[in-house]
Amino acid sequence: MSATDATATKLSATWLTRWDPEDQAFWAGGGSTIAWRTLALTTVNLTLAFAAWFMVSALVVRLPQVGYTFSPSQLFWLTAMPGLAGGTLRLVHMFLTPMVGTRHVVSLSTLSLLVPLLGWFFAVQDPNVPYWVLLLLSFFAGLGGGNFSSFMPSTSLFFPKRLLGTALAIQAGIGNLGVSIVQFVTPWIIGVALLGGAAFMGDSQTLVKNGVESQVHLQNAAAVFIPFVVVFGITAWLLLKSVPVKANFGEQFDIFKSRHTWSMTSLYMMTFGGFSGLAATFPLLIKQGFGGFEGAPDPLKWAFWGPLVGSIARVIAGPLSDKLGGARVTQWAGIGMVACTVMVAMNVSPDSLDEFPTFVGWMLALFFFAGIGNASTFKQMPMLFAPRQAAGVIGFTAAIAAYGPFLFGMLFAWAFGAFKAATPVFYGLAVFFAFNVVLNWWMYARRGAANPC
User: Fold this and answer.
1) 276 and 403 Cβ atoms separated by less than 8 Å
2) Could you say which of 101, 168, 254, 272 has the lowest number of CB atoms within 10 Å?
């Protein structure tokens, strides 16, 4: 790359003047450094976004134990609201990157996470807080869910097609770890007094479990992420630049003319919709299914394993999809999801605690295949569309799939209300997953497909 080209990659405060990752000289002469630095910083911010988005799923199982009197249906509604907000806000975020750029989107949306974090910090300290307030705060947690549909399209613009499967899988997979982090950290962080206890962090709450009382600090679940959000939100503002791929609001609607937008939306609803929906409801599924047995497991000591397995699988499957092709990997992931969902359905209404290991095993396998499919579908989209359109499709499919926590929360609330079990939901999911396996095979994976990807 010439000196002129090198200078052209630098810019004012926000926009790069030139960006051509497919040009090997440009990529080797500085483009690669900018792209990987951007990926690293946006991935950290995306991890924080997922932690804020799924914070409610980690807190909700503790609320009845500290004095909140909510029905199972109300608890599932609390876990569902972040999904409703996340999906809706992603429909907004999908348009933002070509309009305002990576720098503004990443920094400002990261700082917006302070709204739900501070809200829950204060709300969980008072069991008399009205239910509607917690419902509203659950909705605000969806601010973290919205970020995905601008962060991931941004990343798709920074990398050449040959590396997109790897780059997108790294960002999304590590970002998804935010789910596991918040569900793993919450059980032990609420058991300690941070920064001197009540003087700075508020009073403790009395938790009653199996007739035994203990003191906990539920507000810590939110407080521990606040300084990270401030630091990395400001860092994004100072260090990030934006790729000069611009489009106004109206121009971006051209993606809806393609049948591939809709087929990939269905496929991503299977993979990420399944991942996010089950990640949000896994703790309550354990509590509702096995909580009535003597010696019942603590949901939060097990629930984080599902998102962890899925996130790691997504990172691993990215390079695999670059090598083998996204459609082929999606096909095997979908088949695995169908089989695991049927097995979960057969073990989700237990007769004894002895069935718990089997249930968890099949759930983890389901998360594993969903994580693989999350990576492979994001490899398919850039192969089917031009860069700017691919970014839009990634944002839109992610928006629809982000309704997973809301849909799953509503489905499980209905199933437990009508049947006292989640079994019908899992059989229904198996049918939907099977439909997508056939769809992917016909359009992309079979020999002679019109659009192999």
Assistant:
1) no
2) 254
